[in-house]
Every structure is written in C-alpha cells, then in structure tokens.
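FW: tagging you since you asked about this chain on Friday. Here's the raw sequence from the shared folder, copied in full. Didn't touch anything.
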Amino acid sequence: MVKQSSTAEIIFSLDQANAMLPLLRLIVADISLAHRELSERRHQLHRLVRRREDSKAQLYNDEVEDTRNDLRNETRQLDEYISELEGLGVVLRSAYDGIVDFPTVIRDEAAFYIWKMGELDVGFWRWPSETFSQRRPLPKERA
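HL: got it, structure written out here
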C-alpha cells in the first residue's frame, strides 16, 4: 500500500517503486522524446527568425508562425506527460535524461529512491539535499 504523508506526498516502498516501472518507462520515454523534439523545434524557430531578420524579407513569416504553433502544441503535450507522471506521486528530475525520484523514508528521514530511464530497476537512493550524481546504491539485501 502506498502511504500518504501529512503533506499529501506519496511515500513509496522499494517494491512499490519497482512495480511502477513498466508504466513509468512508457511515460518517461514519451517525456524524453517530447523534450528532445521541443528543443529541436526551438532551435529551428531560432534559425528561421535569424534567417528572416538577415534577409529583411517576409518570406519566412508563414514558416515561423507554423513553427511557433508546433512549439505551443508540443509544449502542451510535454506538460500533459509531466502532469501524468506527477499525478502518480513521483518527481521528474530530468526530462532529457529521464530521471525520476520516488519520495520515501530511509532511517526515519525523508529521502528519494532514484530511477533513470534505461535502468532495469530502482537501485539507488539519495537525501533531498543531494543531487543525482550523489546517489547511493541500495544495499544488496534491499535492492
């Protein structure tokens, strides 16, 4: 059973976190792909705007407007994916790398289990004040 803290934050056991991975793999893959496409779309828009300014012509107006519309739609889609993920009680730490934190309690203190897209299971944890690079492997008897 997933426990709720007094602040309505979901607290995950390691088994619960691992059980969510099939669904999270799908959502996080969508988020990562959408994030990368959004980044490319922004670069494309920047290039179009620069080309339009350099040419002093209005030739690129339609293409710039279409790209802006695509950017708005892709941003909205990414926001929906992130909302879906957060609705499950997990925290997206990196859309690009697909890093997700599961709020938990370790040694009676708030902590996070960490999973990164591509990993088979949840095998790391960290304290809230630490970064992804400071994550620690879970002890073998718990992992």
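FW: Residues 3-137 form one domain.
HL: agreed, and The two ends are 18 Å apart (CA to CA).
FW: great, closing this out.
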